[in-house]
Amino acid sequence: MDPLLTAAGDRLSAYHDRLARLVAVDSGSGQLDGLRRAADLVHEWCGAAGLAVEREPVRGPAGVPLGDVLIARRRGRGRGRILLAGHLDTVFPAGTAATRPFQVADGRAYGPGVSDDKGGLLAGLAAVETLAALGREEYGELVLVCTPDEEIGSPGSRPVLRTLAGATDVALCLECARDNGDLVSARKGVADLEILLRGRAAHAGIEPERGANALLAAARLTVALDALNGRWPGVTVNVGVLESGARPNVVADRARMLVDLRAWRPAEYDAALAAIRRLVAAPAVSGVRAELTVHSPTPPWEPGPEQRWLAELATKVGAELGLTVSHTATGGCADANLLAQAGATVLDGLGPIGGDDHSPGEWLDLDSVVPRVALLAGLIDEIARR
Predict the structure, then answer these.
(1) Is 67 left (phi over 0), alpha (psi -120 to 50) or beta?
(2) What single string gives the DSSP state of each residue in 314-374?
(3) pTM of the prediction?
(4) CA-CA distances (angstroms) from residue 106 to 109, 224, 329, 364, 366?
(5) Where are the chain's structural domains?
(6) Is the preceding omega at residue 117 within 30 degrees of 0, hence cis?
(7) 245 CB burial (10 A radius; 0-12, 13-18, 19+)
(8) β partners of residue 364
(9) Alpha-carbon distance 382 to 371, whole Å?
């Protein structure tokens, strides 16, 4: 067996134990106590693996604390600087780890965050340990960064990621591979839009003409936003939330909309956002005003020649391990988008194979752990030697 596979296999028991312990901690975005306990565990394991660990608290809009970014470093013998990026937070509410605890069945692990991204994050640490066990440390420095706010767009972690990206040669992101095993070589950009509409309340039976119906304006804006779908290739606009009104006999004076915008290419992303701004600026009901806020805009990650080279190198390393490795684009965004925007050469999906992220059925293929850790370790080694 290839030495990488053997050394990765030697880490499997520790990986299983760590995964069970980490998934047992509720660490949804903003759950500060759980995020601290999750960071404490990873801090302990990184320290035991010989990595120097630092932690930096980050805050979101209005100074809201979001948890600690954990940065673990290991020096090698060479010059190349390689960043491994994962995240500690999940999308699940507090109490999920108790009501839906970690379990293993038919070769799969289940539990909140088991695939996104606790399984991938731990694969990154296992790859560092694998290379250390083999003495293959031809890199200059390996940096493992774990953010606490990726699931909400990394509003607090962005400055840290930008700094790390500027000091790295290659960023390997630890989101799990697609459920068919594909790596990720491109991601859509995303903008989370909040639209507040303000009208004028009135009695719906006696003097409706004195009102300005914010709900009606929101409904017409929903139709107009939906009509943007198909205007640009690959651009999607989805009104996911529309809140308004308190009583049927009152003309609604307020409405709130939450909208998801996604696009493959920066030019189309910018064009769609500009079109949305124009629609919001001119509500279709007289007397209604609308205000748009863009939360944590994340630009598209559009691959260039360096990204394609990196994906091809992963395919080559996989073939040497007896693995068929391919890559694809995905509509979900991640910290990979931000690292690419900051100038890093990026490849994502380097965790084990998983699926059904963000759902009660989220799973991780335990049989994929050893080969995927070996693939990641081999890719790090190949990059460092080049």
Answers:
(1) left
(2) HHHHHHHTT----EEEES---HHHHHHHTT-EEEB--EEEEE-TTSTT-EEEGGGHHHHHH
(3) 0.93
(4) 8, 47, 29, 11, 9
(5) 3-188+300-385, 190-298
(6) yes
(7) middle
(8) 109, 354
(9) 16
CATH class of the structural domain 3-188+300-385:
alpha beta
**Any idea which residue has 């309340």 for tokens?**
201
Q: Taking each helix axis as running N to C, give the angle between helix 12-23 and helix 120-134, from 0 to 180 degrees, rounded to the nearest 10.
A: 150
Alpha carbons 3 and 123: distance in angstroms, whole number: 17
Q: pLDDT above 90 covers what percent of the chain? A: 96
Which run of H or E residues covers position 183? strand 183-187
Q: What is the predicted pLDDT for the residue at 386? A: 84
Give, for 189, the enclosing helix (H) or strand (E): strand 189-198
Give yes or no for a contact between 24 and 31, defined as CB atoms under 8 angstroms apart. Answer: no
> Model confidence over 330-369: pLDDT tens digits?
999 999 999 999 999 999 999 999 999 999 999 999 999 9
Q: Which residue, chain included where needed, has tokens 């990184």?
A: 46
pLDDT of residue 1: 60
Q: What is the pLDDT of residues 101-145, one digit of tens each?
A: 999 999 999 999 999 999 999 999 999 999 999 999 999 999 999
Is 66's pLDDT higher than 80?
Answer: yes
Phi then psi for residue 372, to 5 deg, are: -75, -35
Give the C-alpha separation, 94 to 149, whole Å. 15
What letters, b where the CB count within 10 A reaches 16 and e where it falls short, cover 27-36?
Answer: bbbbbeebbb
**C-alpha distances in Å from residue 81, one per residue of 5, 47, 323:** 24, 20, 26
Q: Which two tokens stand for residue 185?
A: 């070589």
Residue with tokens 């490795």: 325
Which residue has tokens 């394609």?
308
pLDDT in tens, 157-212: 999 999 999 999 999 999 999 999 999 999 999 999 999 999 999 999 999 999 99
The Cα–Cα gap between 227 and 148 comes to 36
Q: What is the DSSP letter of 186?
A: E
Maximum pairwise Cα distance, the chain = 83
Asked if CATH classification 3.30.70.360 holds for the domain at 190-298, the reply, yes or no, is yes
Edge-to-edge order in the sheet of strand 103-105: 103-105, 108-110, 363-365, 351-355, 176-177
